[in-house]
């Protein structure tokens, strides 16, 4: 951010600080209202209703209370939660009771992870129930303040009606309304008490799930599951009987039948999510098809293979991209699904990745993606097939052997494979091949010796890394295609642009996408090998440690949050500027007037910037309410010291919304002629035709005379003055001038060119030729037409005269040498002619040429 931007950024912060402080106050009032401090939220004292309006107010209040009672009724979804939560609680207790037997069965890490995932799903369901109940309770509480005011109002109105001896019918109507407000208040209070009880019971179940998950995490982190802990005997000492060593372990195997029924119930209860998914699917389809249409319409030759690949992905594999993104959104939206549902979705995603990756893979490795799917199936079967301890070890031994066979098939001989011409990503995978060999061998040896924890982790790295690599590489290809497609449409609609700017943006986009996907891949990989959680705990502990410098206390977490918020804010403003900063952006479909997209872009960008800075300060732990104390002092300082800055700031807003100048306009201000390159909040920049970029304060553009040559249109009238000798025919001259102007390629037909006789000069008949052209070609058009006039006059024999002079010399000196030679006369005559030639261009067509007498 440039230094001068901080001046008007202060102004934005002052405007937002008052709003944020007010929002904090309103939030505090709402919290007090919800927690029961009802009297503190009353802002006006209730008053009795006048007898003139009493009948109308009775009708209005009855309708309002009827609507309120309808809104605060217990909804059906909460009634359903109330009906099933007790049974669910018993189910959780039963499941938790089997945890002891599960621990005794000495399960492997995969079964523990599956069980943790299952209990996390239970917790998520309970959390959604709790959120639903709490939202309804908060919503009902918002009506309390209004109801209490109404109750007091109608109580005062009833007493006033008695004092005024109002008719009996009016008293009864007022009493009914008063009683109805009491009933409504009691209904809200009773319902909220019901919600509080339900929340407490659901929270008890959440505590049970958290305790179970904590016990499982403790088991997972125990020494029994250390990598080098011999959890089993050597393989030759193991028994391979079909009878389970611990029958309870069989209960923890995923039942396909139960998963199918659970998936059906899961989808049945999420009709709203299904509808939202269908909407997302439609948007994705239209978006990809529009990008494909843009690639076909706005053809562009990519400079690199990656850009060409991104373009080909959208054009030739649009249906696969739609299917891949649809499955990815399905997996993201439908969280905590039954394991079978999740595994089938992942399998379909991997299957969809095959046609995306194979066309760009070396022929040596094209079929390896099929084996990646095979490893996913082999790994998933462990959750659905019950194994004894010995059979399980044989199974993972077989899986490790398959890994080695597949590696040998695709990378043998390794010396030849190492020298293949592949891209950077392929070379990286080839170099990692020896590591996969080593890990597979370690998994086999450790399995035989009984170090099954080491076997699990090495085999997981060998197989799961290929699965997530396939997934994220396909995602990267689609993301690159989408990004390049957006850039292609953005520049495709432009008439002119700098090709290097486009290439730079495309290159940076590809680079950023690779970095982001690599970071996400790393996080997933660390999660697979059970290292992410310890790292997160360590980092979180370090970042949350408070530090103090003087009276200032801060944490590294707050500093990083501050920096990350600012970076995100800056990135969003850049993205908004790229997409909608001009008439060729995404708003072009709305066909807005010229300059409106730029105004919308500026307002959105500075709105995001202002709130981004405030959020960043909040993340840093700064009390935003203190800005109110600073506002007075800063306002005084602004009034005296920053008058020019504020004047330019306000002028910038006027320029944006009034739009007297727009980007690309040719303007003239303070003897400065050029094209508007940028309109900022404090200043604007103008590129002169000499190549200089001049920064002009906005106040100068508002307060000074401004000539905009291209605001409403870019046409300009050009004038050519010409003189002919008195011997020429003026009618013929007018015809010639009109023909020349009409025949020029730059001249506009509407309005048509006009040739006019101007006046009788001292030595010429003066004519004026007027014609209209586009401003950008005005100089060229004038030059071409002037040359054409000269050539045509010469061909027609029409003379263009120069001014005539008569030189009278009086009173020659007596001592003048009378024997002037012929050479002196010739020299004098030559000098006079030179003076005439030098004078002619300067005073051409002048109406009153000078005469020396």
From TrEMBL:
- Segments carrying the region annotation (Disordered) are 819-853
GO molecular function terms noted in the UniProt entry: mechanosensitive monoatomic ion channel activity
Where would I find the Mechanosensitive ion channel MscS C-terminal domain in this sequence? 718-800
Name the residue ranges with Basic and acidic residues bias. Answer: 844-853
* TM regions (residue ranges): 274-291, 312-334, 340-356, 368-386, 392-408, 428-451, 471-491, 512-529, 549-570, 598-622, 634-657
What does the record say about its membrane topology? Multi-pass membrane protein
Per UniProt, subcellular location reads as: Cell membrane
State the Pfam families in the record: MS_channel_2nd, MS_channel_3rd
Cellular component terms, GO, for this chain's entry? Answer: plasma membrane
Record bears the keyword Chloroplast: no
Region forming the signal peptide: 1-23
The record's keywords, sorted A to Z, are:
Cell membrane, Membrane, Signal, Transmembrane, Transmembrane helix
* Family recorded in the similarity comment: Belongs to the MscS (TC 1.A.23) family.
What is the protein name given in its UniProt record? Small-conductance mechanosensitive channel
Species of origin: Formosa algae
């Amino acid at each position: 951010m440039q230094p001068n931007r901080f001046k008007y950024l202060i102004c934005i912060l002052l405007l937002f600080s008052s709003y944020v402080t007010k929002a904090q106050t309103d939030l505090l009032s709402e919290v007090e209202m919800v927690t029961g401090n009802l009297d503190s939220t009353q802002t006006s004292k209730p008053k009795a209703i006048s007898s003139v309006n009493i009948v109308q107010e009775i009708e209005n209040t009855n309708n309002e209370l009827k609507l309120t009672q309808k809104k605060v009724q217990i909804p059906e979804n909460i009634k359903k939660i109330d009906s099933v939560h007790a049974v669910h609680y018993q189910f959780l207790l039963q499941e938790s009771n089997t945890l002891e037997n599960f621990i005794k069965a000495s399960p492997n890490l995969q079964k523990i992870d599956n069980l943790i995932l299952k209990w996390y799903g239970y917790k998520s369901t309970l959390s959604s129930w709790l959120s639903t109940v709490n939202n309804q309770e908060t919503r009902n509480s918002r009506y309390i303040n209004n109801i209490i005011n109404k109750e007091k109002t109608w109580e005062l109105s009833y007493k006033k009606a008695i004092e005024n001896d109002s008719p009996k019918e009016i008293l009864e109507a007022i009493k009914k309304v008063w009683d109805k407000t009491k009933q409504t208040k009691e209904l809200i209070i009773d319902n909220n008490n019901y919600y509080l009880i339900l929340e407490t019971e659901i929270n008890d179940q959440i505590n049970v799930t958290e305790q179970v998950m904590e016990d499982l995490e403790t088991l997972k982190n125990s020494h029994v599951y250390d990598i080098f802990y011999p959890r089993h005997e050597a393989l030759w000492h193991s028994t391979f009987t079909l009878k389970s060593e611990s029958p309870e372990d069989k209960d923890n195997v995923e039942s396909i039948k139960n998963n199918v029924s659970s998936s059906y119930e899961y989808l049945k209860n999420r009709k709203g999510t299904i509808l939202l998914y269908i909407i997302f699917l439609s948007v994705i389809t239209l978006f990809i098809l529009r990008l494909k249409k843009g690639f076909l319409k706005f053809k562009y030759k990519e400079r690199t293979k990656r850009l060409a690949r991104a373009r080909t992905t959208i054009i030739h594999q649009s249906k696969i991209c739609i299917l891949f993104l649809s499955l990815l959104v399905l997996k993201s939206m439908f969280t905590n699904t039954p394991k079978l549902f999740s595994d089938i979705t992942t399998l379909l995603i991997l299957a969809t990745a095959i046609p995306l990756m194979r066309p760009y893979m070396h022929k040596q490795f094209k079929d390896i993606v099929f084996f990646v799917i095979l490893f996913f199936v082999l790994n998933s079967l462990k959750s659905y097939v019950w194994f004894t301890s010995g059979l399980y070890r044989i199974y993972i031994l077989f899986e490790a052997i398959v890994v080695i066979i597949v590696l040998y098939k695709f990378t043998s001989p390794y010396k030849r494979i190492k020298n293949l011409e592949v891209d950077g990503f392929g070379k990286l995978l080839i170099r990692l091949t020896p590591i996969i060999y080593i890990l597979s061998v370690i998994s086999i040896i450790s399995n035989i010796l009984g170090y099954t924890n080491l076997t699990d982790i090495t085999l997981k790295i060998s197989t799961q890394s290929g699965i997530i690599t396939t997934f994220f590489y396909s995602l990267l290809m689609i993301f690159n295609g989408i990004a390049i497609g957006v850039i292609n449409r953005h520049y495709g609609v432009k008439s002119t642009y700098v090709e290097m700017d486009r290439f730079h943006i495309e290159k940076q986009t590809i680079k950023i996408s690779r970095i982001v996907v690599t970071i996400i891949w790393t996080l997933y990989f660390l999660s697979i090998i059970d290292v992410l959680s310890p790292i997160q705990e360590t980092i979180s502990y370090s970042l949350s440690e408070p530090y103090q410098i003087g009276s200032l206390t801060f944490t590294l977490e707050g500093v990083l949050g501050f920096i990350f918020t600012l970076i995100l804010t800056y990135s969003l403003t850049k993205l908004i500027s790229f997409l909608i900063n001009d008439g060729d952006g995404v708003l072009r479909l709305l066909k807005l007037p010229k300059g409106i997209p730029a105004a919308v872009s500026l307002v959105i960008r500075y709105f995001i910037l202002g709130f981004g800075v405030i959020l960043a300060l909040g993340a840093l732990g700064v009390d935003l309410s203190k800005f109110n104390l600073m506002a007075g002092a800063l306002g005084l300082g602004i009034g005296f010291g920053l008058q020019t800055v504020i004047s330019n700031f306000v002028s910038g807003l006027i320029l944006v919304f009034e739009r007297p100048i727009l980007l690309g306009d040719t303007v003239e201000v303070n003897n400065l002629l050029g094209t508007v390159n940028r309109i900022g909040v404090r200043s604007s920049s103008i590129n002169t035709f000499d190549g200089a970029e001049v920064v002009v304060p906005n106040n100068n553009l508002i307060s000074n005379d401004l000539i905009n040559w291209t605001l409403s249109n870019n046409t300009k009238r050009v004038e050519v003055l010409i003189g002919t000798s008195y011997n020429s025919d003026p009618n013929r001259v007018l015809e010639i001038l009109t023909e020349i102007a009409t025949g020029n390629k730059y001249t506009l037909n509407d309005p048509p060119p006009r040739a006019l006789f101007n006046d009788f000069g001292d030595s010429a008949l003066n004519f004026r030729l007027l014609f209209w052209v586009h401003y950008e070609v005005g100089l060229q058009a004038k030059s071409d037409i002037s040359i054409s006039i000269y050539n045509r006059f010469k061909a027609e024999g029409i003379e263009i005269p120069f001014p005539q002079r008569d030189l009278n010399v009086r009173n020659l000196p007596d001592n003048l040498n009378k024997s002037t030679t012929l050479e002196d006369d010739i020299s004098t005559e030559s000098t006079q002619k030179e003076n005439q030639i030098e004078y002619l261009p300067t005073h051409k067509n002048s109406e009153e040429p000078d005469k020396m007498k």
